[in-house]
Structures are given as structure tokens and as C-alpha cells.
Design a protein that fits this description.
Elements lengths: L4 E7 L2 H14 L5 E7 L6 H10 L7 E2 L7 H18 L9 E5 L3 H12 L4 E6 L9 H11 L3 E4 L2 H9 L7 E3 L3 H14 L3 H4 L8 E4 L3 H4 L2 H15 L4 E4 L2 H9 L3 H5 L4 E4 L4 H9 L3 E4 L2 H10 L3 E3 L8 H4 L3 E3 L4 H12 L16 H10 L13
Parallel strand pairs: 1-2, 1-4, 2-3, 4-5, 5-6, 6-7, 8-9, 8-11, 9-10, 11-12, 12-13
Length: 382
Amino acid sequence: MVSTINLACVVGARPNFMKMAPLLRAMEAFPNLRPVLVHTGQHYDANLSDVFFDELEMRRPDISLEVGSGKHGAQTARVLERFEAVLEEGPPGGGRYDRVVVVGDVNSTMAAALAAVKLEIPVAHVEAGLRSFDRSMPEEINRIVTDSISDMLFVSEPAGIDNLRHEGHAESHLHLVGNVMIDSLFRLLPKARQRDTLSRFGLEPLGYGVVTLHRPANVDQPDVLSRLLDVLVETSRSLPLVFPVHPRTSARIRDFGLMERFQSAPGIVQLPPLGYLDFLAMTSQARLIVTDSGGLQEESTALKVPCLTMRPNTERPITVDEGTSVLVGTDSDQLRQKIGTILGGTFKRGNCPALWDGRASERIAAILALPGRRNSIEEIRP
């Protein structure tokens, strides 16, 4: 008989939910796994929270830490303090936690991992091994620290395995399993496309582009942001652009005196925050995507939608090597040229990588349920 394994599964921000939802579902196939869902509250929007959980068909958190937003140090400290107390108390019903499961690269990921190892509780990191090799990115530090203290590393692409080997991780700790983000995407794509999202905004499939920008390199310098907006305004005259504007980006547009230029472009459709299904309905039927989001790089690759990534580097190289992503950096001239290539029909055709098949969560759950049983990329069935 396989012994019970109590898991503390941690989420802190919206991208974490997309990764944890399929994992929790896959764990249901293994009676010995008892996951407790802990939400740190690093990102919390009362208006979207319930909708988001409903759309992902995800159960509500068992424990909420309510740490809130704030500077890196304060936020990390609050997660450490409050999650440590949760681990010391143990799971509901008694006993102790056998393992902590963290996903992604947000502050909550690193802080929860630190709290666990200090209490000698082993850590599994989902989406391990991703490296941009740019330590100016807070996420890069979170990834490196989390991987360094985890003994079960679930990797989404071969480059991640190479990175972890180079860093000296034991081969027995490495598991190439695929991409859990794509599990959520494939499960919910049919439901997303049944929605009336496009018609509500007067859009036609393949008749618009989607833009998301929020990283400091793109929005914190007036000259950079101004040139990028010029290209977007110019493009919107021939192709409508759907632009859910991040609060940081909106503030910079206003602060730099660019708001009139931005709002006067009739082809730019500014949207409020969207739920997962509405946003997936938008991205999956777009002609092109312009983004600095790592998650959207992955999703566009799985959807085979051309993606111009406004970053000089990426921790997800498979989206460039095999997928539809092209790195543009902050170069407005290159952005303009690549948009022309897409609209002219000569953009490269990408492929969905191996193991991005909607079953990564099943592989992870099987390894968690029977530690040491498997360390291969073969399909693992419950």
C-alpha cells in the first residue's frame, strides 16, 4: 500500500493559477496524494478572483495568507512568515506536510520554497530550469533561488534540463514533463472559442492583433515607449489592435504625455482586465501578438499564432527555436518590419513542442505520487 503524501500547493499570482489548476485535477487520480491549496494573496483582485477560479474549474484555496502587494522585501518576508506558520501547523486533519509544490517564478514561489526547506520539508518546483541569463529581472533571481533549494525539478523544455545540469543538479532530481500552462490552454480552448468575446468588441477572427506590454524596459523610458506607440498606432490603421493596458503602462503613458496620441488612435481597442476565457478567445483567434509576457510566448507557440516578443532575451528559447516567437527587444524599427512580414504572409510557421500535449500535469502527479518511480519523458499514465 502506498503511503499518504500531504502536499502544500502554493499559488500567489494569476499565472500560478493556470499552472496549478491542471495539477490539482491530475492529483485526483492518485488517492495517496492529499493536496492543500495555499493562496499567498500576492496578487488579488476581488472583482476577478471568483470568476478566475470558476473559469479554470479550480477549487477555492484551503488557506489564504492575504499578504497583499508591496515591495519585494516586504512581500517576500510576509510570505515567509505566514507560510512558515502554515507549515508548522500541518495539514487540516493532522500530520505534517511531506512536500511543498511551487510553480513559476513570482515572489511567492521563492518565499514558499525558502520557508519549506528551513523546516526540512522538500520542495518540488514546476517550471524549473528556465533561464533568461538576465539577472536584472526579478523573476530570474526567483527561479535560480527556487531551483537551488528544490529536489524535484519539473521542466517544460529541453533547454531547462541543460541549464540545471550545468548548475550541478543531480540527474535524479530532473524530470522533463512538458508545460502545465498548455494543459490549461488545451482543456479550455473549446469553451473559450464558444464565447461571444469577439462579437462584443466588433472583431473578426484573424482580423486584429493583441498587444500586452508591462516590463520596465519597454514602458519606463519615454523615448522607447513613444517609439513603440508610434508603431502600434501606425499598425492599427490597417489592423485593429486589442490592448488590455497594464496599470503600469497606463501610468507611464499618462506621465510621459502620450495619452492623447494613444487614445486618439481609433484602431486601438483599449480593454479592461479580462478573465482567462475571454483573453484566450482573443489570443487564439488573433492575426498576431505583440507582448513582453513569457506566458503569452508559450501560449502563442501552442496556438501557432505569430508572436513578436518585446524582449532582448527569453527564458523560453523553445518558443523561438520551434515556436512562433521572434525576439524584437525594444527596437521599434524591427517591430515595424516584423509586423509587415506577418501581414504580408511570409512570417515563419512554428510548431508546438514535444510534450506540450496537455498531459504534463498527469506526468507530474504520477511522479509526486510515486517518488523515484520515474525520471523519463515517456508518458506516465495514472
